[in-house]
Amino acid sequence: MKKWISMLLVCLIAVGLSGCAGANKTKELPQNFADPQSVLDYLEQQNEIYVQAEKNNGDLSKVKRVDTAVNGQHPYAVIVTCSDSRVPAEHIFNAGIGELFVIRTAGNVIGDHALGSVEYGAEHLGAKLVIVLGHTHCGAVDAALHGGAHGAIATITDEISACLPAGCDAREAEKLNVQNSISRIMDSEMIAELVRKGETRVVGAIYNIESGAVDFFD
To answer: Which of 44, 117, 128, 168 is the most buried (most CB within 10 A)?
Structure first.
């Protein structure tokens, strides 16, 4: 009887370990992305996984760190998003090392340095998609709606408030702020040319910090 109990416990432990290993298995990336739409489709799928997940199964391994150190980075997307600590871009898209070129500024606003970074990611690194990712409950947008800010922070809120019509609510303001950043990016001749050639695409989205879902819009 004791022998059977011991065998049963061994089997249960083995099954448990197998299940854990499967749950933590690193995802496999597509070998390549044919075009910007394929990247967008993939990121939408990965966000759906994130919404239900408790852990990121992107590749964070030592092997990946060494590979990207030796062979360089080849991100498939540029993400322009807010510095807000509740907006973890790599996790939102279930991504590992070397997958996303992330640019963070408070309010996801675009200035010269941020624009140069977008150009670098798209033109030099070959990212096929640029996403401007705003989010709900954005402090910078809220400040722009309710009187701005002091010091250098005012350069951020002034940029946002300049694109907002009187009387708009927070949700509309968040979307208009994203669209304003997209316009700033498309002012770049380099990015405009890449878009014209179909080599990259610039899209906007809003991240819901409560649900974890990303809502893309044209």
So the answer is: 128
* Total residues found in the chain within this entry: 218
Rounded Cα distance, 120 and 190, in Å: 10
Say what the pTM is.
Answer: 0.87
Helix (H, G, I), strand (E, B) or coil at 88: coil
Give the Cα separation of 50 and 57 in Å (integer): 9
φ, ψ (nearest 5 deg) of residue 79: -115, 115
Tell me: the pLDDT tens digits for 66-115?
A: 999 999 999 999 999 999 999 999 999 999 999 999 999 999 999 999 99
DSSP state of 17: H
CATH for 29-217, among 3.40.50.150, 3.40.1050.10, 3.40.50.2300, 3.90.960.10? 3.40.1050.10
Residue 102 bridge partners (DSSP): 79
